Amino acid sequence: MTYTEASMNALRQEGDELADATVAELFARGEVGKFNTLMRYVSTVGAPLPDGLPDVAREYLEATSTPPAWVDWSEMEKARLFFIDNNVHISTALSFASMPACYVVPHVAKLLSATHGLKYPSKRLAETGQFTVYLMQPDAFEAGSRFIPAAQKVRLLHASIRHHLRRENRWDTGADGTPICQEDVIGGQMFFSLLVLDSLHRLGVHMSAEGAEAYYYAWRVVGAMLGVDQDAVPKTLDDAREFLDLYMIRHMGPSPEGTHLTRQLLDLYEEVVPGTFFDPVVGALIRHLIGDTCADWLEVPRTPWDTAVKAVPHLLGVLETIEDSSPLGAWALDRLGHLTTVLELSSLTRGRVMHYAIPEQLKKDYGYSTTVHRTRRWTPPAATVS
Fold it and tell me: Is residue 204 one of the residues assigned to a domain?
């Protein structure tokens, strides 16, 4: 599939017809508060919808309660095993590459700064981490799982932000297109899939081509659940590279909001990591993963750790040698990775389940082990623009 300036401009005008209509009707009837209250009781697949739920909300939830008919479940299982094998690395990439990449797109940084819940990076990171963990559970689409209800709520959250920004005249649609438009939603999908794979490669993580392709496929399924236009979304990693390159060339740059959000992210992890000696590591890792130009735009400080962090791929190479040569070593590293991810998520959520709700107004302030065969090692698709 070929992406052009014209096709990307068209995607900037598109929102999410189903979710936008649902949110508009809830606000028109004054039923948002009741909807949020009742939806706190809908957190697992198969749970009966509560009495008193507005009809428009019930129709939306029923229409979005199943995964796309085209899902290949064998690919989803490959993606799950890939996540288990690389969960710490994926969490690192989401925190220190995907999030800063959002901030280096000025209109996305402006949107994030304009919303109350996203003012706090711990909440944003916790929701993203929890959402990914829900997705990669073996029963993610079965009764009792939490992924589908979370996806339904995130889709309505995006629609509610569009609703508020338009109604309050806080968004220049002429200059920036529809808030959380299809181009940006697909761009976000690329940040959480292809950019994560790029970051793992940059860290020296050895991935099979099959695992990388399956992980990207899983995020295609996520995109479909979040209302992404399936005619426009890249179907392959090569197409994804073309889309992401063009998207970033069109939009990336410095902004006060991007700098502010990055500072919040750095402060968050400096608070989480004990002491102060390792504080500069976070900035060095961000700089290593997104490059000096983007890091300078975000005003990530330069420190002596910028050189030291380049040794990470060598360390990971040693660990992967242990993992590949010893079943016991593989089991121990997988368990360590699982515990590290759980502890990181617990510190961000404070042990609570994160609830996604439709904001009634925007703030004006701003257990399984697997052996991965390292054959047909994945390398990123080549850049499509210079």
Answer: yes
Closest CA to 156 of 290, 312, 22, 62: 22
- pTM for this prediction: 0.82
Helices marked H in 208-364: 209-225, 237-251, 256-272, 279-290, 292-297, 305-308, 312-325, 327-349
How many percent of the chain have pLDDT more than 90?
Answer: 47
Provide the number of structural domains found in the chain: 1
Q: Is residue 355 part of a domain?
A: no
Kindly indicate the confidence band of residue 359, based on its pLDDT and cuts at 50, 70 and 90.
Answer: low
Q: Quote the CA–CA distance of 349 and 343 in Å, as a whole number.
A: 10
Cβ atoms of 76 and 178 closer than 8 Å: no
In a domain, 363, yes or no: no
pLDDT tens per residue across span 52-96: 999 999 999 999 999 999 999 999 999 999 998 888 888 889 888
Segment 376-379 long-range contacts (CB within 8 Å, at least 24 positions apart): 376/208, 376/209, 376/210, 377/206, 377/207, 377/208, 377/209, 378/197, 378/201, 378/207, 378/208, 378/209, 378/211, 378/212, 378/213, 379/201
pLDDT tens-digit series, residues 191-233: 999 999 999 998 888 889 999 999 999 999 999 999 999 999 9
What's the rounded Cα separation, in Å, for the pair 347 and 341?
10
Q: Which domain holds residue 11?
A: 5-349
| Residue type at position 106 | P
371 in any annotated domain: no
Q: What share of the chain is helix, strand, coil (3-state, %, to 5)?
A: 65, 0, 35
Buried b (16+ CB within 10 A) or exposed e, 66-86: ebeeebeeebbebbbbbbbbb
Smallest CA-to-CA distance from 292 within 78, 183, 362, 284 is with 284
